[in-house]
Amino acid sequence: MAMCILVFLTLLILPTSHSSSDELYIDKSAKIPQSDLDLLEFPLNLEYLEAEFFLYGALGYGLDKAAPKLTGGGPTPLGAKKANLDPFTRDVVLQFAFQEVGHLRAIKNTVKGFPRPLLNLSSESFAKTLDTAFGKPLNPPFDPYSSSLNYLIASYLIPYVGLTGYVGANEKLESPVSRRLVAGLLGVESGQDAVIRALLYEKATQKVPPYGITVAEFTNKISSLRNKLGYTGLKDEGLIVPKSDGAEGKIAGNVLAGDRDSVAYARTPEEILRIVYGSGDEGVPGGFYPKGGDGRIARSHLKSA
Predict the structure, then answer these.
(1) Residue 70 has what DSSP assignment?
(2) What is d(CA 97, CA 92) in angstroms, rounded to the nearest whole number?
(3) Which of 43, 47, 145, 234 has its CA 20 to 30 A from that of 271?
(4) List of residues 6+ apart from 23 with CB closer than 8 A
(5) Is the distance from CB of 93 to CB of 58 less than 8 angstroms?
(6) What is residue 38's predicted lDDT score, i.e. its pLDDT?
(7) Please, how many CA atoms are within 13 Å of residue 164, restricted to the half-sphere of its CB?
């Protein structure tokens, strides 16, 4: 009996010991190569965007109130506001919002980082993106803040781009500290994207009022636009695809995007900048970043533009 009690107590202690080792990825004393620092710093551009969009959508305010120290004194986003969300969607979005606050802190605990860049989260910015995706102006202009469905469609624009960036960065990282951080961030960003896609997939054949266009077609148009802007072929897929392009070439439903082996696609920082700027050129800012992104990688392209 004494031996059983000893084994039981040992098992209780072990998880605590393991948990503390997981905090190594924020160890500032670890030596991280400059190339890693640049790749870890770059995602702050997208994490700022996600944090502000989700915070404002759920709460009506952003980092300036929720976590002012993380802004680095950067300018307040343009046009962001509280969305007209049903209780369930607001709950999910609020969880995303606080997760993004944690992401910003985790990155800034590892690299110096930079202040929040100027972000344009106005309805007009999203409307312009959707107009470009459809190749014509939507009437009325798309408003991401007007309903839960519109907000989820707008959310489809965001986490997926970041997760492809983390997949692309991972193979270039040298330090175990860097890889641990990126793996952790990728896990949650992928989860966010999966939740958004699943919620939209449930409504895939539903028409978005007042456009008479299905949810699936919205996602397909957005994914096609990102492929076009990225200039590197197919790395983005909507919710319903030709059966030959689905998992194992056997299904049209596409709740998760992936290559022929259902492995996540990877993007470079340059591809991401082309997409989020909406210009198709990593040296020409615009879209959600009127003055461009920050960090060594983003600034290097602005200087050469």
Answers:
(1) G
(2) 9
(3) 145
(4) none
(5) yes
(6) 96
(7) 28
Q: Tens of pLDDT along 10-46?
A: 444 344 433 333 443 445 546 899 999 999 999 999 9
- Which pLDDT score is estimated for 28? 54
CA-wise closest residue to 181 among 15, 47, 4, 84: 47
Measure Cα distances from 109 to 24, 39, 113, 178, 220 in Å. Answer: 11, 15, 9, 12, 37
Q: What is the crossing angle of helices 148-155 and 215-230, to 10°?
A: 30
The answer to whether 117 and 123 are in contact (CB under 8 A) is: no
Q: What is the DSSP string of 187-253?
A: HHHHHHHHHHHHHHHTTTTSEETTTTEEHHHHHHHHHHHHHHHHTSS-----SB--GGGSGGG--SB
- Alpha-carbon span 183 to 113, nearest angstrom: 19
* pLDDT for res 7: 40
For 211, other C-beta atoms within 10 Å of its C-beta total: 15
pLDDT in tens, 117-140: 999 999 999 999 999 999 999 999
Amino acid making up residue 99: Q
Question: In the chain, what is the straight-line distance between the N-terminal and C-terminal CA atoms, in Å?
Answer: 74
**C-alpha 127: how far from chain center:** 19
Asked, as a colleague might, if the bond just before 210 is cis with ω within 30 of 0, I would say: yes
Residue 78 CA to residue 287 CA, distance in Å, equals 12
